């Protein structure tokens, strides 16, 4: 895969709505404090997962065949917990002045994001150079996460409760999809 092909593949997967992107859009809509820190948290979490997977991932999967299933199950539970929290946040935010999306939630969600498996086990190792692929990945993570934050700011205002509920429903659907993968594996 050439660097340009890798860029398009990474961009397509990064931009796809998923748990981390949903949280970023919600954070933008909720106008959280220090929103520009969230792309850096996402990048750090992705790199903590993607770099080891890119280097040693195939070996780990061969040595521990159930590892992919275990990681998917952990992601399923976390995304389901986030869905419940976002649903509750939609009803309690006004009454309690709740904080909304946190950097910790973005970090943990990104660490458990199934996309990291694709980045680290398939796309980046298929690129022409590991270091160049990781630099490209890092730049695209920042750009895409800023875009999701901006999208969220466009949805803020009177639609806030609907945005929170919509995000919760989307996260719930993603958790169900992940659970389906676990159950059929």
Which keywords apply here?
single chain; 185 residues; mainly alpha; 8 helices
Structure description:
The chain has 185 residues and is an all-alpha fold. The chain is built from eight helices and no strands. The chain has helices spanning 3-15, 19-30, 37-63, 67-96, 103-111, 115-126, 130-154, 160-184. Helix 2 packs across helix 7 and helix 2 runs antiparallel to helix 8 (160-184). The longest helix has 30 residues, at 67-96.
Summarize the structure.
This protein is mainly alpha-helical. It contains eight helices and no strands.
Describe the sheet with the most strands: none
Shape: globular
Average pLDDT works out at 84
Number of strands: 0
Could you spell the SSE succession in H and E letters? Answer: HHHHHHHH
Helix segment tally = 8
The Rg value, from CA coordinates, equals: 17 Å
Tell me the fraction of residues in β-strands, as a range.
Answer: under 5%
- Kindly report how far apart the N and C termini lie: 29 Å
Poorly predicted segments = none
Helical content stands at over 70%
What structural class should be given to the helix and strand makeup? Answer: mainly alpha
Secondary structure layout:
Layout: H1 3-15, H2 19-30, H3 37-63, H4 67-96, H5 103-111, H6 115-126, H7 130-154, H8 160-184
Helix pairs in contact: 1-6, 1-7, 2-5, 2-7, 2-8, 3-5, 3-6, 3-7, 4-8
